[in-house]
Write the structure tokens for this entry.
Amino acid sequence: MKEEKKIQQSDIDDAKVRLKPIAGISPLVYLPFIYGLAACFVFFVIFLYPGIRSRGSYLAFDGSPSTCAVYLDGNYRGSTARKFFVKAGSYAMSVEKEGYTASTKQVVVGGRLFASLFFPKISRFTYGLSAIDGAKNIQRAYAEYSSWSLTGKPSTLYQVPVILSEAVADYFRSEEKVKAKASPFPFAVSDFISDIAAATQSSELARDGLRASVLLASGGSPSPLGLAAAARSALDVLGKDAVGGIWLKDLILKKSKKTADLLQKLPSPKPQALKPAPKPQNFVNLGPQQYLIFSAGYAAMGGEAPSGSLAFYSRKVPSFGMARTEVTKGQWASFLAASPEWKLENRSALAENGFIDDNYLASFNSGSPDEPITGVSWYAAMAYCAWLTKTSGGAYAVTLPSEAMWETAAAASLSDPSSLKEKKAVWASKEATGPSRVASLGYSSIGLADLFGNVWEWSADSYLPYPAFARGSGSDGASEFLAGPEKAVRGGSWANTADKTDLHSRGGLSPSRSSSFLGFRTAIVQR
């Protein structure tokens, strides 16, 4: 066997590659042609094909209000807040926003054929929507601002949108205000800041509220004088009592050690001893319930914040009556018999209108008729109150109790509200699978049952994280103009433990929420 020849470096150096002619055409001819064809193809793919395949423009918008929906031929395509691509053509374009008159016009969108991948065509449009009711737009913005406050502290996953300050800016930019010389802003800067503080529970959200306050103080155009006026009003609101210190502690306590040390030195709020305080008087029968009447007076409120901090304040309450027990399944059955629109078979229609969720009356057909009704939304509870008012007649109207009414009655049920040791209630246990019959553990010393435990109870009020700041003539002290999107619930349920719920425990839920842990009791006020 012959030994194979080893390849040497000299063999590699001497090796040559020779292309053969193709169809008699020399490589010196066809290679430049192939390279040129490839270059043309790359040029076509990069510079021409994108413009041929998706010829169109990015639409950009300038105008007010700043964020609106854009519809092309009746189909939603994007927001005026950012550019979006549209293929070339003729469209009926409508710029719309709730609370404003829509702007509709026919537009022709062109496109760039060459180098559109690198230099896309941008078609700019201007618009200006007039506010139908600028004040109502502020109301909607405040409700949305409040709802973001209830989502908790922002993180890297989501940021709080600028809502309230944009609404204030839009109010002053409104063409209707310029042309018609609309009435001044509905309230003063200090009142507005009070409502903002009541709904704010994160420093990130507070920035939007501060900017809104500066815009309001400046008449829509930020200025040093407006900033000074807003700062002065904010200091006035936060410096009235120790509640401002609690608010600042909750919002910025962890920002820096120096700030934390300073805020820790602020005085802690204490319960307010007020005269005259509401006092229990006599019982009144109305419909299926008996009510304990309380005199008018000033309620000392705990003002529990989401952080657990107590920010004590007072609230004036009229003379009112509190039902001795929660509304029962048997009483609710009478309501359904007279109000078929709230029956289970109409669940789809009620849900479509936003009055209930999927848990509406989930356990209504089980248990005893003496158990508290659960699975009812705030809207359903209010409908029950309206029905009872209509059928009962007389000098009283039936309603849900305000937080001040509820806390007044709960405190009066305890001989020593500061100790909270007398809470007769159905609390969490191994045996509990739901609420017990109303008053199954008896009545308090003043004759009320189940204010603690058994089921959480709807109140008439909007939930505000810091109600001590709220102002106005509403039952909860909040402004009649501004209100949050959730309703306050009080009292705890059969799934809570006694050490986790007390006189001041409160929370907020969507008014359409229906839960097996949630019911309600009624109150009465003079017509």
